[in-house]
Amino acid sequence: MLFSKIFIDMENARWNLSKDIPWDKFNADRLSDRQLHGIKMNALLEWAAVPAVEMFLRDNPNDPDFAAFISIWFFEEQKHSLVLLEYLRRFAPDFVPTTEELNEVNFEFDRASPLESLALHFCGETRLNQWYRCAHEYHDEPVIKHIYTTLATDEARHARAYFQYMQRAIQKYGDTAKLHFAKIGVLMTNARLNPALHPTNLHVNKELYPRDTITSRLPDPEWLSRWLDNEIKFDIEWENKVEQGILGNLSALLSQKFESSADLRQYRKKLEIVSSNSARKEIETCPA
Question: Taking a C-beta distance cutoff of 8 angstroms, is the pair 158, 80 a contact?
Answer without folding.
Answer: no
